[in-house]
Every structure is written in C-alpha cells, then in structure tokens.
Amino acid sequence: MSRMAAVIGSTEPWQSGEVLPTAVCVLAPNPSAMTLDGTNTWLLGSPGHGTLVVDPGPADAKHLTAVQQALAERGQHAVAVLLTHGHADHAAGAARFGRVLGVPVRALDPAHRLGDEGLTAGDVITAGPVEVRVVATPGHSADSLSFHLVAERAVLTGDTLLGRGTTVVAWPDGSLRDYLGSLRVLRRLADEHDLRHALPGHGPACRAPAELLDQYLQHRRERLDQVRTAIEAGAGSVADVVAMVYEPLPEGVYPAAYASAAAQWEYVTGRPAH
Q1: pLDDT tens for residues 189-231?
Q2: Nearest-10 crossing angle of helices 209-232, 176-192
Q3: Is the pLDDT of residue 55 over 90?
Q4: Residue 170: what pLDDT?
Q5: Is residue 233 part of a domain?
Q6: Which of 47, 150, 209, 242 gets the most CB atoms within 10 Å of its CB?
Q7: Is the residue at 98 inside a domain?
Q8: With left for phi above 0 and alpha for psi between -120 and 50, is residue 236 left, alpha or beta?
Q9: Do residues 10 and 206 touch, judged by C-beta distance below 8 A?
Q10: pTM for the whole thing?
Q11: What is the pLDDT of residues 170-189, one digit of tens each?
C-alpha cells in the first residue's frame, strides 16, 4: 500500500506578526506535531479602533499578556473575542481573556461563550473598518466557523485550513462529509470574492486560498481512494486502515491518524467506526 505524506501549503517556519494592515497574528507558545508552530491568535482591527481577538489560544498567562501587549503597541483595544471552534488549543484561554478585558466571548457552541451573544452563519461583526462575515464550516469539528474579512479579501479559517499540511477531521465530533462540503463552500467563496489571503489557525498565512483549497480537495480524494483500496485489500477495522495507509507515523500523532481514518471509514462504508 502506498503511503502519501501531504506536503501542502508553506514549508517555511512561521514567526507570526502583521499579515495585513488590519490582521496581526500573535503566535501562542504551544508548538507540537498537532499545532505546528503553535496556535495563531488573530487581532482584527486598526489603530485607534476596537479590535476583534480571534482564538486567544491555550490557557497560558504569558500568551494572554503577549496579546494584550500587541494590542497596546498598536493603539488598539479589544471589543470582543471570537472563536473559530472550541478545541482547547484555540479556546481554553478565552474566558479568562474576556473577563480580564471585560469583553464578550462569542462562539457557535454556547458552552464556550462569555455573555449573551453567540455566533451563527451569516452574522456580520464590525470593528472600526473591519467587517467580518461568519461562515459555517463544520467538519474538523461540529462547531467550526470561518470568518470572511470582506474588504481585505481574506478568510480566517481556524483549523478548516492550515498553513502547512492538512487538518484532522476530529471524529466522532467531526464529519468528513461535512468537512468536504465546507471546503467546497470556501472554494466558492474564494471565486466569488476573489480572495487573496487565508489566515489559518496554525501555520503560515497563505496568499493563494483558491489554490490551497484545490490542493486540500485533491488530497482528500486521493486519501479516500487509498482507504477504499485498503478496505478492498482486507482492512476490517479503522486500526487496519491506519496501519495500511498512514503508518509509519511520527511520534504522538497516532490518535489524530485514527480519528481521521475513523471519519474516512464512516464516509466510505456508511458504517460507524469500530
């Protein structure tokens, strides 16, 4: 069985910083095989105006202080926290950050909110000159959202797109069927709005979102073909699929490979993973 290692997106180290005049990344100090260089906390706003803080990241006091310092250095102040989804590497620090700054935390999942306002597809949030439109992009997780920055011709994707490699469909909360649908939604958005930037939850920003999305969709088609071949060759369980398609694996990523294979198993066979 052929093993395919996805080399998608940038291969350069990511140091964060200003990507657009209204989009600055503060990189959380939580690098790993799963989080790449760390979690990207995005500051959406401009000097002298309120700023949206997207994904404050892990419950790390030094990181939250770094976010506050970045705001102060640019003459900005937070008016709300937005969450792309509720995974701990994106959201664990959100409630503390919101309380310290006295701002709401808005998320699709009520469990991750601070205050009365949530987020749903079609919502429009403004902060000074920045207009953000909320796009439902489930798949990586059931509560995954992306944020379309209209004037900047950019989309902030959480873990739906990464700046390097491909994302995990976190079965059973995540769904491959939903994820493929979300990639197609973002691909249409790229065409309809001539998107020029993808701002991911991990890894470098991308200046060719349509191309990146095409690579993601092609990779998923090829991976599903590999899974079908493995099943036809006798794979009778998700663990068999992992062994035949993914291994050998880097240390520490077996749970992610298993979750992805479980989502693929369900998609291909129509049966729950076992």
Answers
A1: 999 999 999 999 999 999 999 999 999 999 999 999 999 999 9
A2: 160
A3: yes
A4: 85
A5: no
A6: 209
A7: yes
A8: alpha
A9: yes
A10: 0.94
A11: 899 999 999 999 999 999 99
Kindly indicate the confidence band of residue 100, based on its pLDDT and cuts at 50, 70 and 90.
very high
Enumerate residues 6+ apart whose C-beta is below 8 A from 268: 224, 227, 228, 231
Classified as helix, coil or strand, 23 is strand
Is the sign of the CA dihedral 184, 188, 191, 193 positive or negative? negative
Report the alpha-carbon distance of residue 135 to residue 155 in Å, rounded. 9
CB of 87 within 8 A of CB of 167?
Answer: no
pLDDT in tens, 129-159: 999 999 999 999 999 999 999 999 999 999 9
- The total domain count for the chain is 1
Give strand pairing partners of 135. 146
Sheet strand arrangement including 145-149? 124-127, 130-136, 145-149, 154-158, 197-200
In the structure, how many helices (H) and strands (E) does the chain have? 7, 11
Over residues 250-264, mean pLDDT = 90
Task: Please report how many Cα atoms fall inside a 13 Å half-sphere around the Cα of residue 174, on the Cβ side.
Answer: 30
Comparing CA positions, the residue from 167, 154, 187, 162 lying closest to residue 22 is 154
Residue 200: give the domain boundaries.
17-215
Is 256 part of a structural domain of the chain?
A: no
Question: Quick one: how far is CA 187 from the chain centroid?
Answer: 15
| Domain CATH for 128 | 3.60.15.10
DSSP character at residue 220: H
Which residue reads 């080399």 in tokens?
7
Query: Which tokens belong to 229?
Result: 């071949």
